Structures are given as C-alpha cells and as structure tokens.
TrEMBL record:
Protein name: NUDIX hydrolase
SUPFAM superfamilies the UniProt entry points to: Nudix
InterPro entries reported for this sequence: NUDIX_hydrolase-like_dom_sf (IPR015797), NUDIX_hydrolase_dom (IPR000086)
UniProtKB keywords: Hydrolase
Organism: Flavipsychrobacter stenotrophus
Cleavable signal peptide: none
Presence of keyword Hydrolase: yes
Pfam family, any one: NUDIX
Amino acid sequence: MTILPKRFILPNSRPIMKPRFNVRVYGILIHNGRLLVNEEIIKTRTIIKFPGGGLDYGEGTVDCVIREWKEELDMDIKVLAHFYTTDFFVASAFDESQVISIYYLVTGQVPEVITNHVPNERTYWVDLQDVSADTFTLVIDKRVGEMLREQFGVNE
C-alpha cells in the first residue's frame, strides 16, 4: 500500500492527497525538413526536449506556447493545430504532481540564427528523417518523437 502525505484526513481516517497537475505546453516547429529542439540542464542532467514550458494560472494553452517561444527564443509563432496531449500517467520528478503535456504544431518567421535567451539552454535543428523516440530524453517527448516519425514517414 502506498502511503500518501497526510494533507487531508477523511472521517474514516484514510489519508488522501489533493490532486495537483503540472501542465506543460510545447511547440513543434518543422521547417525545411528539420525539427527545432531544445537542450537544457535540469538537476545537472542534459535534457533534449521541445521548446515550451509551464502554463501559468489563468493562461490558455495557446497563449502559453506563444509566450514561452517569445521568452525563450524571441520568436513570434502561430499555432497551426493541436498535435498531442498526454494520455498516460507521468509523475513529476520535482514534486507531487502529475505532468500533463500539450503539443502544438507551430509556424513562424524563422530567423537565420535562432538564439535561446535562457541561460544554460540551447536550441538547434535536427533533420526530420533522424527524429525518433531516441531523439528525446523525457518519456512524453519520446512518445511525441515516435508519433512524428510515424506521421511524417521518417526513418522508414
């Protein structure tokens, strides 16, 4: 039996945990046969992921991905379509929350050089034909990498 933090006690004395969600929103930019990815260091570990980040309270998911791309990459993007939302349980590595990630296909004016404005992060292109689950570090991103491989017919 899993013992949960005693945040709330029901009348029958069974502890329950208040559910918490960590919503992340990412953009998938494919340009000239390449996919834009982000590399960052989290807890001394190098992570390869999609550009994007955490949803602020009161913010819509489309507004979030647009804001994140502007903050990190100084890029104005437009959301084309929803691509994927997490459909399996993933616990956060940082706290007692469940991670829900939302991915959008995005487009925008692609500058000659893309500069990541966040310290200890870099952003670069990967040939779409080389994209797979193995391109990424995090389990949800791995699922999306595999979906991209399947949907866009790469690695066949």
